[in-house]
């Protein structure tokens, strides 16, 4: 992928994501102001009266979704400005990771359209988008660790297609419990634990590949560490149900991403 194409795609994504975010924010504000915002039924399965920050609070879930949308826009904007003239395969795959993060935004349609108790193809489709987003996010980390060197630059477009196809495949085969909706904002996954295990295994393979690559190159950048921080922060925000989870996840995600991109920028500035 050429530098011009990558920059154009990032620019278009920034405009698209900001427009979608603005629509979500406006409709949410209007519905809340008119008391038409549809909260899910009360869930008391995660209450700890002795520590309020661990109690289930849907407002923390709402905040986490908007935070992910803002994170995606700001990260794309930072990459567009700081790496405008820097050719980096890592940024190609990281852009795909950001697209996966932004897919979490469809969870807002459950309260906005009161889909908590509906069993339709639309709710199934929205839940599949969430699965697709989480699949391509971890797939992007794996491909970035394996195919970020210069000799694989000509295959970046094919690799992106493979990531998308893998995401569609996982979204297609993942069974959903259409009779149960989670308060996080998607239909319950029949094998949710299995999906998380596969997700973590793929991620750890990517991290080990990064560590091995840095060891062979005797590099001093801390890409694997920063990747661990921002990815687990992202997972924490995705499944956030209380303010403590939200706070920890947000701090890890933003801090890890900033230092990941900063180290990446320094690496290319001094080695190219």
Structure notes:
A hairpin with a 3-residue loop joins strand 1 (176-182) and strand 2. The chain has a single domain (3-271), classed as Up-down Bundle (Rhopdopsin 7-helix transmembrane proteins). The model has no long low-confidence stretch (mean pLDDT 87). The two termini are 18 Å apart. It is built from nine helices and two strands, in the order H-H-H-H-H-H-E-E-H-H-H. A two-stranded antiparallel ribbon has the order 1-2. The chain is 69% helix and 4% strand. Helix 3 packs antiparallel against helix 5, helix 5 (121-146) runs parallel beside helix 7 and helix 7 (192-217) packs antiparallel against helix 8.
> Helicity range of the residues?
55-70%
**Which structural category do the helix and sheet elements fall into?**
mainly alpha
* Helix and strand pattern: HHHHHHEEHHH
In the CATH hierarchy, what is the class?
A: Mainly Alpha
Average of pLDDT: 87
Radius of gyration: 19 Å
Sheet-strand content, in percent, reads under 5%
CATH 2nd-level architecture: Up-down Bundle
Distance between the termini: 18 Å
Which blocks of ≥5 consecutive residues have pLDDT under 50? none
**In terms of quaternary structure, what is this?**
single chain
The outline comes out as globular
């Amino acid at each position: 992928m050429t530098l011009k194409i990558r920059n154009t795609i990032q620019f278009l994504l920034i405009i698209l994501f900001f427009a979608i975010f603005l629509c979500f924010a406006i409709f949410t504000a209007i519905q809340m102001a008119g008391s038409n915002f549809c909260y899910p039924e009360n869930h008391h399965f995660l209450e700890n009266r002795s520590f309020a920050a661990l109690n289930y609070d849907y407002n923390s879930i709402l905040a986490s979704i908007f935070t992910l949308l803002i994170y995606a826009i700001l990260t794309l904007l930072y990459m567009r400005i700081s790496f405008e003239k820097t050719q980096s395969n890592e940024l190609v795959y990281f852009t795909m990771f950001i697209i996966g993060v932004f897919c979490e935004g469809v969870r807002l349609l459950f309260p906005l359209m009161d889909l908590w108790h509906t069993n339709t193809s639309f709710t199934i489709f929205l839940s599949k988008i969430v699965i697709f987003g989480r699949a391509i996010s971890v797939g992007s980390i794996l491909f970035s660790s394996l195919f970020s060197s210069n000799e694989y630059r000509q295959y970046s477009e094919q690799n992106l297609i493979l990531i998308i196809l893998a995401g569609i495949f996982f979204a297609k085969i993942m069974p959903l419990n259409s009779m149960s909706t989670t308060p996080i904002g998607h239909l319950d996954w029949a094998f949710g634990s299995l999906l998380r295990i596969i997700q973590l295994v793929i991620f750890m393979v990517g991290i080990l590949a990064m560590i091995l690559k840095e060891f062979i190159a005797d590099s001093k950048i801390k890409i694997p560490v920063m990747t661990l921080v921002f990815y687990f922060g992202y997972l924490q925000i995705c499944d956030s149900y209380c303010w403590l989870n939200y706070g920890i996840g947000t701090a890890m995600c933003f801090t890890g991403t900033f230092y990941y991109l900063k180290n990446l920028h320094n690496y290319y500035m001094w080695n190219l």
